[in-house]
Structures are given as structure tokens and as C-alpha cells.
Specification:
Layout lengths: L3 E4 L5 H8 L9 H6 L4 H9 L5 E6 L2 E8 L6 E6 L8 H15 L4 E6 L6 H8 L3 E6 L5 E6 L2
Antiparallel strand pairs: 1-2, 2-3, 3-4, 5-7, 6-7
């Protein structure tokens, strides 16, 4: 089977919400997402109006991973992947697609927040791809990383 990549559409958001709760690390349930201000309706609306551009990876029509970025700020909001598909380059590809889209919007610097614990997968994932620490942290204690675009 071949993994396909495509631009996210508003109809993808229910599957994305469910997938977010099934990730190996940093899983967020529907309730926890809502506590963070992310509801199915807000996510769908942001994809529909283009303020949250994203890409999904599908296998046999099922979404197995996704990445979304913020059109206004250049923040990578989320990269999520089902555990069975880790280590296959899917997350890297999704991130690269969204980085390219944000670059096309004129950004020369992107940022994201991730765990500062080297034992957490995202710590090494982003650094391996060239993301660098800014030395600052968000209000949840996650480290802010940046990526400079050439």
C-alpha cells in the first residue's frame, strides 16, 4: 500500500481529532483539546478559512498522520502520527510540506513548541531536521524551537 499526501480539508477534522488521541506521545483527548481551546468546530473553521493550512497522510483512505501550521504567525501547530506508521518518514514529509507552504506565504522563520526532555521523541525529531532552540519556553513549559528558511 502507498501512503498518499494531500492538503487537509475541513471534512478531515473529525478524523484528525480522533487521531490526536491515539498518538504514542503527547496524545490529546477531545476533552483535553477543548480545554486548550481547540474544538472540532474551531479546527474545522480554521481549516476552511485557510488560517490553519495543513497536510494529511492517508493509507487506504484513512488518515494516518497530519501537520498543521498557523498562517498568521508561522507556528507549526501540530504534527501527529499513528504509532504504527512511525519511523517511515511520514512525519518528516508532512512537516516538510507545511514548511514549504508557510515559506510560500513569505515566512523566513518558523517556530513550534515541544518537550525539552531528550527522552521524548519530538525532542530529537525536530533537532535532527534542523530546528534549533530559542532558549525560551511557552506557558506549558515546552521549549520554543525555530527553523530558519533559506
Amino acid at each position: 500500500m502507498t501512503i498518499a499526501y494531500r492538503r487537509a480539508v475541513p471534512e478531515d477534522t473529525p478524523a484528525c481529532v480522533v487521531l490526536r488521541g491515539r498518538t504514542r506521545e503527547n496524545a490529546f483527548s477531545v476533552e483535553r483539546l477543548a480545554e486548550a481551546g481547540v474544538t472540532l468546530e474551531s479546527w474545522r473553521a480554521a481549516v476552511a478559512d485557510g488560517s490553519l493550512p495543513g497536510q494529511v497522510a492517508t493509507l487506504d483512505g484513512e488518515i494516518i498522520g497530519y501537520c498543521f501550521g498557523e498562517r498568521e504567525t508561522g507556528e507549526i501547530a501540530v504534527v501527529a502520527l499513528l504509532p504504527d506508521h512511525e519511523g517511515q518518514g511520514v512525519g518528516r514529509t508532512l512537516l516538510a510540506l507545511v514548511v514549504a507552504e508557510l515559506k510560500g506565504l513569505g515566512f523566513d522563520r518558523l517556530f513550534l513548541s515541544c518537550s525539552s526532555d531528550p527522552a521524548v521523541r519530538s525532542y530529537g525529531f525536530y533537532r535532527h531536521l534542523g530546528w534549533r532552540s530559542t532558549g525560551s519556553f511557552d506557558d506549558r513549559g515546552d521549549e520554543i524551537l525555530e527553523y530558519r528558511l533559506a
